[in-house]
Backbone:
């Protein structure tokens, strides 16, 4: 899936375009099930998780675990702020 | 700790299951790893965890990590039936979203650069890291035809080589 190839964890990458779909889906599943925290991702060809979004997840968990298990795709404008 | 995550795709993808919990992960990972991971999760108040896996064709394309924190709430064992039903619906939606996303990407290449559908297929394969030989096999055409398509694509996108092509398409 070429669109989701990752070139480097710190690199500039494009949005997948599926973030909106992910947000709706996560709301759907938290509305209909007792799940407390949910995050959604794509898999690239090396089975790495490409971050799409999360719902309800604590900042403490994200900083300790979520950030290290997911690769983030940054929009060019966001990346240029770095 | 993420290195021993029993729900990581590299460990989960062989199971051919759409809903994977920590309990079922014990069959693929060392039990001590799962116990250690459960202990790690409990430090954050997480009582249970599971992974929904979505396929595109036969390949795992995406997933959803589910975490239960509410002591009076559910767990995978309690919510398994409901989540299995929800997985079917989300898989259907995922296919639709991914399909329209890729169609939009293809339409963009055709509209903006005047690529033919066959040239788009070659571009997709090249961007996925395939060699000319592999592209030829995948599309059932000769290597010479692949090279011809690529020359046309280079000209239309005004790029000098395949590395520049990949950079141009993905940016």
Residues:
């Amino acid at each position: 899936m070429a669109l989701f190839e990752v070139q480097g964890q710190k690199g500039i990458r494009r949005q997948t375009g599926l973030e909106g779909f992910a947000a709706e889906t996560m709301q759907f599943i938290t509305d209909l099930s007792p799940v407390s925290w949910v995050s959604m991702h794509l898999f690239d060809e090396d089975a790495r998780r490409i971050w799409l979004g999360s719902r309800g997840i604590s900042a403490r968990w994200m900083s300790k675990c979520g950030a290290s298990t997911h690769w983030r795709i940054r929009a060019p404008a966001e990346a240029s702020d770095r | 700790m993420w290195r021993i995550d029993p729900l990581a795709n590299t460990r989960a993808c062989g199971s051919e299951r759409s809903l994977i919990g920590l309990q079922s992960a014990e069959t693929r990972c060392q039990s001590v790893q799962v116990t250690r991971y459960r202990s790690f999760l409990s430090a954050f108040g997480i009582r249970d965890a599971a992974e929904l896996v979505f396929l595109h064709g036969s390949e795992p394309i995406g997933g959803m990590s589910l975490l239960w924190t509410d002591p009076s709430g559910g767990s995978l064992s309690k919510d398994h039936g409901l989540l299995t039903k929800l997985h079917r619906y989300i898989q259907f939606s995922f296919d639709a979203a991914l399909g329209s996303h890729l169609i939009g990407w293809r339409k963009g290449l055709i509209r903006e650069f005047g690529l033919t559908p066959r040239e788009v297929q070659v571009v997709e394969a090249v961007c996925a890291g395939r060699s000319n030989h592999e592209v030829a096999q995948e599309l059932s055409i000769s290597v010479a035809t692949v090279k011809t398509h690529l020359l046309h694509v280079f000209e239309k996108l005004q790029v000098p080589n395949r590395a520049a092509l990949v950079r141009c398409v993905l940016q």
User: Anything to note?
Assistant: The first strand of chain A starts at residue 37 and ends at 43.
